Structures
1.
Amino acid sequence: MANDLRPDNYIPGRPFLTLLQKEVRRFLRVSSQTVFTPIITASLYLFIFGATLGERITVIEGFNYAQFVIPGLILMGVINNSFANTASSLFMSRYLGNIVDLLVTPITPTQFIFAYTIAAMIRGLAVGTVVCLVSTFFAGLPWDAPLAAIGMAALASFLFAQFGLVVAIYANSFDSLSMYTNFLILPLIYLGGVFYPISILPGPWATLSHLNPMFYLIDGFRTAILGVGDLPLWLSFLVAGSMAAVLFVWVTLLIGRGYRLSS
Amino acid sequence: MIDMQKPALSLDRLKKSYDGVEVVKSLSVTIECGEIFGLLGPNGAGKSTAINMVSGVTRIDAGTVQIFGHDNRKDYRITRCLTGVMPQEIVIDNFFTIDKALKMHAGYYGLKDDPAWRSLLIDRLGLGPHLHKVMYKLSGGLKRRFMIAKALIHKPRLLILDEPTAGVDIDLRLTLWDFVREINQRGTTVLLTTHYLEEAEQMCGRIAIMNHGELVALDSTKSLLSRLGGRQVTADFDRPIEQIPVELDSFRPVLVNAGSALRFALSAGETTIDLLDKIRGLGLVVTEIETRPPNLEDVFLRLTGSKNNGK
């Protein structure tokens, strides 16, 4: 490889860092939509379930409803925002044509994927952290396995950043993009055990819920925080990790081939 | 260091099809270091597709692209560092200002910001007063200027300009071409497409003409003009011509000025004297004569068929 043909001041990691910086700046520029709105939404949920109903309902032994619902709300913020960041950013670039700006540069497919993914994780985890801080006004949490909780949040964020990239590549319009959010992500989250434990559902519904990938993420995160859940922690990590790996391979194949990015 | 013995750009049997329709048919062209090379053709001729295959925006079906001897698929990180592209469509990111976007674009190429070079581009392209405006507030002309700055921010050795002057005012066109000449003199090879044939004639040392995905001519601008474009002669007569004499058919006459004049398109090798001798032999009296040297438009129209071809 005649690397000497590159300019003298070529810095190998710089294309990746620049794209990462650009992606972070992009969502910060519209932070009222991308960061503050999700925080306000999550805070309203916290108010409803924490200050009003939280003390009056118990769904698992030893915890009030606010304590039960907070982990799910934190993870919901992480998932929604990680997904929205990659999906909207890449789709907009495709839609407006400025993806060409990246296609003509020496950025590699791996750098491309990781820059988009890490920026989405920063947004998702930032929203999750703020929701977590706000939740302390409504209920205290035991944080049974804090590292596992952080790991699960990071894994969920990574997984949905990959899914966002897949959706951005396949979506043909803003309508189809919002269809994925409204008809897939939201129902899966709501039916995945954010607001109730799957174990209280009647038999067939509980079995069906085990097919919902969101259940493993939410239950794993809650188990790490409260110390109790429907599934063992290792199983949640195994399922979530496998899903993340499959999606990552899928994204790598799509972006490596320039599928629907180059003509 | 770049091997100046190797061509700046070499396309070898390049092919591209969309939905079974071949839009670039086995295109082979070599552009030497230091040239300003024009790629011309009517709309839909395959110029932009060919350029997009060079820049990496479009996948190559068959054939190869070599930039300074490096394959643009195998060594894409090198070839993209060596190439600056200004696409035909306006491509901007509305989130950023000109200043931010230029700095960022240098970063995509792995470069630290070079304030001196950036300032030069900003200055020469008249972007100074607009540096801190976000993109959607810029006029069409400013967006084009910005795109040229963006294509040059990493000091490419090969600059590709796809219709850079489409829809821009005369002032910007002149500024742009002056700057392209300057960049070329600094050692950058330039490949450009344009619909303004006069510009191509003035700018390019060599020209390739494409039509229906194929190369129909490739030569130096001078040879192309002399080989294919003879002079155009307009002769006024002392009385209206009712019927064009068949003896003049070889000079491709057309009645003009309400029949009081004939315009002839001379082929290479035919001279005005030959034409006048023929006219005199027919007993016609020429009162005035006007001749015009061949231009690229004549060549272009002859090679691509007609004025309406592909448009």
2.
Amino acid sequence: MSSSPTDTQLIEIVMPQMGVSVAEGTIVEWSKRPGDWVERDETVALVTTDKIDVEIPSPAAGRLAETLVEPGDTVDVGTPLAQLDAGARPGEAHPEEHQEEAPSAAPQEPKGRPDEETDRSGFHSPIVRRMADEHGIDLSGVEGTGIGGRIRKRDLVALIESGAETAAEPAETERPLHIESPYRPDEPAPAAAEAPSAAPAEAGNGAAPGGDILPGEQRESMSPMRRRIAEHMLESRRTSAHCTTIVEVDLHRVVATRRELKEAMKRRGVPLTYLAFVASAVVAELDRHPILNASIDGDEIVYHDDVNLGIAVALDSGLIVPVIRHAQRLSLEGLASEIGRLAQRARSGELEPNDVAGGTFTITNPGQFGAVLATPIINQPQVAILDLEAVVKRPVVIDDESEAIAVRPMTNLCMSWDHRALDGAEAARFLSGVKDRLEEWEL
Amino acid sequence: MKLEAASASRLLERTGTDALTRADRALLLRHMLLMRLAEERGLTLYKQGKVPGSFYDGRGQEATCVGAAFTLGPRDRMCILHRDLGAHFVRGVTPDRYLANYMGREGGVTGGKDGNMHFGDRELGCVGMVSMLPDMAQVAAGIALSFKMRSEPRVAMTFFGEGSTANGQWHEAMNFAGIHRLPVVFVLENNQFAYSTPTELEFAVDPVQRAKTYGFPGVSVDGNDVEAVFEVARVAADRAREGEGPTLIECHTMRMHGHGAHDDMSYVPEELLEEWSRRDPIELYVRRLTEEHGFEQPEIEEIRSSVASYVDECAEKAVASPMPDPGIARDGVFAESWEPLGDGEAPWSRWSATEDQGGTPHNGHHASNGHGDAVVEHGRAA
Amino acid sequence: MAEMTYLQAISDGLREEMRRDEAVFCLGEDIGAFGGAFKVTDGFMEEFGADRVLDTPLAENMIIGACVGAAIEGMKPVAEMQFADFIACGFDQLVNVAGKLHYRQGVSVPMVVRLPSGGGFSGGPFHSQNPEAWFLQSPGLKVVAPATAEDAKGLLVSAIRDPNPVCYLEHKGLYRHVKGEVPEGDHAVPLGEARIAREGGELSVIAYGSSVPLALQAAEELDEDIEILDLRTLNPLDADAILASVEKTGKVLIAHEATRSCGVGAEVASLVSERAFESLDAPVRRLTAPDVPIPFSPPLEQSVLPQLDDMKEACRELLAY
């Protein structure tokens, strides 16, 4: 049965403008094929830009006539992607018409009446979504006891009541000691890693990049996100005069404070991490060293009034840096809450282009995976990036006079900075300031 | 005058009555004129596009409703129909509220909730009609039932047309009233046509003759003779008050306009209209007043012109009334508490403590102002 | 307190009110000398006289119309339709006159129409209906449907005291099968308030009338954490109670013996989806009779009216969802 030749009315579906400064996007995949019926607002394609995946909705109901770009193609904003026949009628069935779910990081509802046999684990009812949202639960990690494996309200109630570590809690909580996970995992994110039996890493783990060439090889083309990261990192190294300065920090007061405050905040749905403390100290200290909260534009230094703090989040597919806007306005709890919220949204693929734009300083936490030193790459167009490394108990001299030794939770803060904008002294002073704040933390 | 329960008699001659004073007579004329002029004004407003929906009048039937309503005391109750505007006026509704109701204004009796003649001022002891006919006959029977149960010497009066006697609800009302000898007066306005349907298609046997099958008298009267109607209604009401049960009064009259203003009445034979136009109830009464009751022309003219200017005033007031606030559309579905109906005005001299001198303007003629604060003796007439 | 059947409780309520207030009187077919088709007014004529226990002709419109007129003038009539089904013959007066008078004219019409409703005894299509949805669609009418003896008395008393027309659905199947402790003397249950018949956390069964005992039995036998909300008043609906229960459980089954389309179930389901969407963990379901006249022969009737097994099955399905 083919469509009858009545009133063909072709309209274009174009690459939309996503985010203020975005000029192009890359097709990830098509959710509909030529000949498929599409409802108005139904997703026709998945596009990525600046590492954010965005669904393209159809502007009208009709039959997809032709796709004009291939997955992997990168095109400018405004480029036609496909043609839709808005004059077609749904009864004119394409022989293979089917509803295809647009794959995205967000869970989709299956359409039609649920079959007992089918897997309903991806269907989330309103109350389930609400509770997940309120408690920061990553549903992809929850086992459902409803029909077809559906997550039921009672499953979440049980989870919450048992106080179990939920998947979305940033993995940096309560893991200050060595962990065996790699820094840039190719395997599933920490969500699954809470089970000690982490899925064995594939090619990325242990094999030095660009190292041994083993007999027999497998090729895999880079994902769009991977490619983006590759480009950005290279560009950043080419742009900035990278230096890295490191300070050691004694976190015993932070640890104690965290112990005091953690429960109360947890009840309020806020996961309190060491990263939050560092963020708080950094934001406060930036006020005294504005050069570190600046950008370079040609020959000019652009000082930013707000601290828009980028927080790097490791995903299975790569890295993404959502931004906490006006971080200087937030308290410790506020920062902790925002860090948790953004991390959860990042992991469930709910970030939008504007969530990752406008950062002025970035902090990262590779320490959650066990590393103690690193030389991070600056997130352009910023002038600095600060790593929180693993917190390790070490014996340290706590009094110069008596040379008394105590075991303290120590960490390194490694900051890479752009020598074009500032010099080592300034960088060191800033870092010392952050160190002092953390070491003298008052409850 | 006694009516025999067993027989129905046709009384087309008028009966003399000395229950009416001169002042009463003036009031009878006044009320009929008020209805005539107010309806003419309403029709004009309708043609001027100020009336949503339809417009109905009872031109030619003024004597029926005024004559019947005039007998009622303040504590009696009425269910008034669409061609009985005169009955509303007798009870104390003012023409501005009638016109405003037609125009859907705030100042209308229902405040915009219902239109045209679907109104009844609860504070004047009137229950407004519904479109389904003759539903009000049953409601009147229910009201009468409460009077009987409480042994009160009060009457419920209701109007309906000859067409609605074809409806099962008429039978149920008549039957129930007859079984329980309810104090209700059924006024049947036989105006020859139910919309376009002539009487011979509405019933095989004249309803007035069927009253006896329900166990009470049916009486025919000239519906264009206001005093004849008054007299028969008076007797019927007294019967009811004395516990003798219902009466059916058939008033023969003619609907001089269409069913509604939208109806050109082309189904009415010309000769019929002409015949009845010579029997205009107002003109008939003017003639009687001047010929038999010593009214002078100037007095008649004075009544006419004072009614005319009063209607003008009322029309202005009605037109100035604002449209209702849409916010009230959801209000008042349910009552918070039961309130008794108020008492209606009762202009017949029998009901007043002192005798009116006549000639008083309509809107000042009773101290009660429609709230029944005049203390009247209802019950036995002198 | 005294133990009474549902039927006795109705009589008790009516009798108490007639003793308390002279304006209250009954009217209906066969209610006087015969004591009523279901004996609700048995002995009333002897106590209150034929005037206050009026045997009417076979004329439903007139019965209702008389109620309207009498109520306007301060009486408090309680009419009995011999079977709820016959309200169809009195519909005009009920819907067009009684229901609309206050809105149009500010006139209060304090009357009650008792409607013996429901099937399950081979009454056939004209003696088995549950017509409450008709009244929900007609503005100006309040509607109540007790499920227990205590409420049968309490709601009737409140209905009589309410200044509006109230349709009182008394389910015939509950007359002698439901018993309970009923407060003696003056006992009124406010209109517009639902009652939690059974507390639970996993599923809300929202029901009224005959579906309440059915749900209670099902919940017992299933031994599950099921909450049962007895609506008691259908108009006005206790939206707060409904929403609170849904908030708690996230799963809703609305059960009524009345036919499916546009019934109370449809109304409650719509309310829930509109105002408790984010609390839902399952689709809102209804357990009702299908849209058919109630058949006469027992196997046919039982396949149409919701049975205990139907109730259990519906609960099970929702619990498992």
